[in-house]
Amino acid sequence: MNITDMSPPFWAFAWPGGEALALHVEQNPELVAGKRVLDFGSGCGLAAIVCARAGAAVQAADTDRLARAAIRLNAAANEVDVEVLEGDVTGADCRWDVILAGDVFYEKTMTGHILPWLTACATAATVIAADPGRAYAPRSGVTEIARYVVPVSRELEDRDERLVRLLRLLRRGE
Ligand SMILES: C[S@@+](CC[C@H](N)C(=O)[O-])C[C@H]1O[C@@H](n2cnc3c(N)ncnc32)[C@H](O)[C@@H]1O
């Protein structure tokens, strides 16, 4: 495949979910400071970088090889430490205090793969998904903790801004 044939690559943009997570962490640094944080589906690494700046020990996961390269470059450019994990962490034991997942519910198959794991992780970690209204975002088992209106690119969206809801996944029985 020629690189010019690619649809807009995930890692080349801050998606609305990542933007909202970054804003939320900037305004609430105590959420992540001193904690082990996973930025799941990190894309360009924006949320991971903001968490590192806030004093978190950050790992970033993305199944896209080019995204992982972009996260490393963006973290270096911002002079923060972000450990980039190889492969698919879905199914791994939860070893984080906080998991952030920006804009990851846009495909049915993908959501079916990741949502059960993210939900299981909510027993041990604070799991926050940032959803700009994607079709497969969970409608139950979550509680809205914040909302942000963020600017978006016309290269990605049919509008100039999007409302993003931050959803904390509930623990079983909560
Ligand atoms: C729409 S992008 C969002 C990127 C970033 N969170 C943001 O909001 O800017 C979704 C990302 O999830 C990644 N992804 C898809 N399946 C994944 C999986 N099983 N584990 C980790 N990342 C995954 C994609 O490669 C892509 O980079």
Task: Give an overview of the whole structure.
The protein is built from four helices and seven strands, in the order H-E-H-E-H-E-E-H-E-E-E. By secondary structure, the chain is α/β, with parallel strands linked by helices. The protein has one domain: Rossmann fold. Strands 3-2-1-4-5-7-6 form a seven-stranded mixed beta sheet, sandwiched between helices. The mean pLDDT is 94. S-adenosylmethionine binds at residues 10-11, 14-15, 17-18, 40-44, 46, 61-64, 67, 88, 90, 102-104, 110, 113-114.
CATH class: Alpha Beta
Largest sheet: 7 strands, mixed
Q: What small molecules accompany the polymer chains?
A: S-adenosylmethionine
Strands ordered across the widest β-sheet = 3-2-1-4-5-7-6
Count of individual helical segments: 4
In the predicted model, the low-confidence regions spanning at least 5 consecutive residues are none
Please state the overall shape, judged from the principal axes of the Cα atoms: globular
Number of extended strands:
7
Elements, N to C (H/E): HEHEHEEHEEE
Class per helix and strand makeup: alpha/beta
Tell me the layout of helices and strands:
Blueprint: H1 16-27, E1 36-40, H2 46-53, E2 57-61, H3 65-77, E3 82-85, E4 98-102, H4 108-121, E5 126-131, E6 142-151, E7 161-169
Parallel strand pairs: 1-2, 1-4, 2-3, 4-5
Antiparallel strand pairs: 5-7, 6-7
Bound molecules: S-adenosylmethionine.
Features:
seven-stranded mixed beta sheet, Rossmann fold, 25% strand, binds S-adenosylmethionine, 7 strands, 174 residues, alpha/beta
